[in-house]
């Protein structure tokens, strides 16, 4: 609990309220504000995966499987996102290997700038993607697209523009349907 120091410069209306009553009133008001703010906000869940753009998807998947003994998924083609992907399962997270699918693929441009490939984005889970999008709007964080799309895990996802979040492309994925 905090304490207020009243000085003579405060309005007469505040001076007429006994100190304890004012303190209790403000404490209740701030508590209510913080509870309401928490309801509107979303919380970041766990780290889901890191995505790496690769020039040869099959070769990259085989490298993780044969060199590191990792379990890999089958190749998935996601035309809505313009990518083909393989997931590499690790003990505590996943790696998503990305390769362009189609001429309009965002990964195509990335690989033109980075022909050897490289880290493309990271994915964080959120409980409610719609609340997350609203919070991003309130916080002036630009999303790529206005509405979530269904991602590789068959869950709604939305990307945050790197210029709005410290230079890193961030994918938000709803952790439950």
From TrEMBL:
SUPFAM superfamilies assigned: Glyoxalase/Bleomycin resistance protein/Dihydroxybiphenyl dioxygenase
GO terms for MF: metal ion binding; methylmalonyl-CoA epimerase activity
Broad class of enzyme this protein falls into: isomerase
Known catalytic reactions: (R)-methylmalonyl-CoA = (S)-methylmalonyl-CoA
InterPro entries tied to this protein: Glyas_Bleomycin-R_OHBP_Dase (IPR029068), MeMalonyl-CoA_epimerase (IPR017515), MMCE/EMCE_epimerase (IPR051785), VOC_core (IPR037523)
Gene Ontology terms: cellular component: mitochondrion
Keywords: Cobalt, Isomerase, Metal-binding
NCBIfam families, A to Z: metmalonyl_epim
This protein's name: Methylmalonyl-CoA epimerase, mitochondrial
